Fold this protein.
Amino acid sequence: MPLPNVPHLCGGIFFDLLLEARRFRTSQRDTFNSKADGLSEPDIYCGLAKILTGEDLSKANGTALKKSVSNYKKCENSKGDYVPFTDETLQSTFNTGYNEKKSAILERTADFIKQYLNPEKCKWLVWVLIDIMQKDKSISPDTKIAINFGECISISHLHKAETIYFLPFFLSVLHYVVVNCPDCESGRATFETWYTQSSPRAAWKLRDEIKQNLGKDVKLIDVSMDLKVPDDVEKDSSTDADAKAESTESRNIEQTEPADSKANKEVSSEIPLSRRDTKLLSELMTDFNDLLKFGSDTDLTIMPMSSSYPDKFDDVYKKWEHSDRKFKNKELNNLRVGILGTLYSYFHFWGCHMWYESAADCFVHKKALSTDAREIEEELRNRIDSDRKACKQLHERLCQYIIDFDIIDEDVNKKATLGESHTTIIQNQTNIAHSESKTYNIKDSNIIFNK
């Protein structure tokens, strides 16, 4: 009798890993509003199904759905009306949409990631998925997986990637699972090896020793949590990145204009912003300017971080994560999402490597470093270099948008209401004011404009 294929990546095991990577559950039920926290196993399952179908499966909530979710999680049964992953019609439709690079699928995937997954755990998930796919005997090492938009690499080379963009990578793995092994039964041996329960009625838990070793054989690849969907994603075709990864010379030859520069040109100042977007952009700069500059300028492996920074981020994150803070302009909204995701990962990661010297300051925790001190310190230095670069790029984009759209800094230009007349005061700065027929050059002056 042949030995079981462990580990094996099928639909059921993929779902189990998503449950390990979900956001922290503050409470399973809000006692004041009597609402669930939206992170239950059926919630994650229905969210994943929505990527595939575009429909909200949770409307069919009931005993049958919960049973299907339970069976799928335990790798026992993939049959039933509430298992869209094994429906051949849905598989074919999803496969076509993925190959044609339909932006709607990418947008649904981005929404799923933002709603259900923890950004820091997503990086762990990448390393684990690479580890499993390279060890799964049923997966060809030549199978291509996306590491960026329009850029794929074979599974055998995934561990060599310098940077992986989580959104296209996640969708690429989901596509592989749906097309090749959407069932759960084939992963039963893996589930039984990995999971345990303290009693027959207790919840199944991933064994501690398994969780500690998953992904351990894969180097700490940089994972980008930028979830914006490129405007031209439907027009691009996938390219083979294997040769590209092995040839730095070809990479230099193929260098083109930076993506950030292109993004800024697409949001040209010639395209007017709505009054609401203009106000939101000014608020975005006010709320995140100092945080992004701190993240860009500070080496946390040697410099202190005032506790005021993570506290401030927690406040503004709660403010900007809600849908009422979305921009109508798509590129600006992508910037907002990028800032939230990057800073969320930044403060949550470094918060785990800090200890408090006083109530005001905290420093990188180096006391716990032992035999692996040098290796851990090197990983932390690489991480801070990557984080500083990401913060710098986001800050530069934000500043460029402020310049392009000629957004006035509210800290410098204060608005006052005199009767029904609105007055803007501009002090000690150089600006250019435009009207339909005239251009006014203003230099080092204290001038009041009455609108």
In short: Residues 11-250 form one domain.
